[in-house]
Amino acid sequence: MSKTLASFPLKFRWQLIVIGISLLAIGLSIIFRITSISSPTIPLLIAIIIGGIPSILQILLKLIKGDLGADSLAAIALITAFILNQYLAAVIIILMISSGQALEAYAMRKASSALLALAERMPTIAHRKISGGIEDILLTNILIGDSIIIYPHETCPVDGIVTEGHGSMDESYLTGEPYQISKVPGTAVLSGAINGETALTIQAQKVPSESRYASIVTVLQEAEQKRPTLRRLGDQIGAVFAPIALILAFVTWYITGDAIRFLAVLVIATPCPLLIAIPITVISAISMAARRAIIIKDPTVLERLPTCRTAIFDKTGTLTYGKPILTEILTKEGLDSNFILQNTASLERYSKHPLASAILQAATKNNLSLLDATSVTEPPGKGLSGIIGQNKIVVTHRKKILEEFPQMTNQLPPTSTGLECIIMINDQYAATVRFRDVPRKETKSFISHLKPFHQFKKIMLVSGDRESEVKYLGTLLNLSEIHASQTPQQKLEIVRSEMKKDPTLFMGDGINDAPALTAATVGIAFGQFSNVTAEAAGAVIMENSLNRVDELIHLSLSTRKIALESAIGGMALSVIGMGFAAAGFLTPVAGAIIQEIIDIIAIMNALRLIWGKHIEIDIFKK
Prior knowledge:
Distance between the termini: 55 Å
Helix content: 40-55%
Structural class: alpha+beta
Largest sheet: 7 strands, mixed
């Protein structure tokens, strides 16, 4: 067996075997009947034993559980065909059942487990500092108080405190904060954060099993265990259709006394438009989504998304770009903003501060050349300072200024949402530089159209970011229900609470969003940066644009519509055929052939999504 086939679920591989055996059995039966080499029933009986017994066991289990779905009716027809010695009809039924289950198993295939992705992201060894140098130890051997060295670009293995080194770490996977966080001796680090360009030495404050990253794994495990299960669309329709078909078949048998007619009604009633057309519709949608940089990992997203009435969004990297941008320079009277920006950028190019890149980008955008700086220093917690020309430039924060120069209280502008730097020139206040993680250009249009165009009743903003930033974005988007500074556990509880009221969509992009993504009715992730988030979500938007999310919503609506058309249309044709079978105009084999024709019609309709060239969206409608 090839590696490609071996990577598929066992159920899928088994159904392929059953399909092959069924086709071979039908072919051999025809050959044996024509040539009289052997009994034509022998290959059919072998196929029934190999492929039919599992189906019979399935129907018995479903009957015990009180579940009479779409495939249950097919299994009843199979049992009846065997009892009445209608072996060819029985094998054709097995072929229909196996084809539908194989297609569905293929559609439901998952790339990998979210928990496996989490485990793979963490290092297996750590670098412990000892008296004679450095030793590599297993992650599980880290003890509280150990000095652990984290090399550039490595993942931090444990929660701790920096003891040596100056650098920065990307904690956005864990905290929801959009920026690289500066790390100097005395600052805390979180397990799972990715180190920047310089090596850091930390003192372990917790063992790995009790650190922040491990707690997220635990929450995700719990979320997966409690994830709600929705019945398939086919089963929902089949639960209504199957009893009606059974009643009609029994009534026919009772009135005519002909068991063959009973079987013929069941065979043509076998709901293959449900078993085959719906999975093909789903596969078509998955294929079309993939061409639009949308990866649908859980096909039930296509059924569930149109039912969602509450939408919950993370902020950083989801509704915003996740990168700080310089938005405003407030200068002291008489100073030019370009003068301030040029001098600040000239100094910031020597800094690893998370806002330095935003200042340098703004200077480049304004075509400002950088000046030479001398005596550049950046003491921990005291800001950045240096000499440019004849001026001493200091870039620091409001708290530090007010501690050293309390008389400047009236000179500083009022505080506002977002981040800021205070610029001092020759120990005199010069300017305030403000930054913000700005919304995506399509965010406001996208959020504002969800209620009028997609029947969402509630839209919430839930973020691990600071309250001032979240409130600012909430005000900008006219959202009244916002939750800031939320931990992964709190996000999970909010999702669970909302799901008790209505089906809920959650969208995020960091590891801190993974538990909520897993627990929601539908979880959508921006998957460009985090494997873990991608694995936890039902759908992943690889091209970070809310336009793609709107396309997914429309695709799910089209998928549900076409699936219903195929299913209900197929059921209607089956009902007509059942009438002819009840009147004695169709044998079981003829009924099976007609049912295959109905299948082809339903499948052709299901393939409409593949034939489509694009997805209509209404994100910019007002």
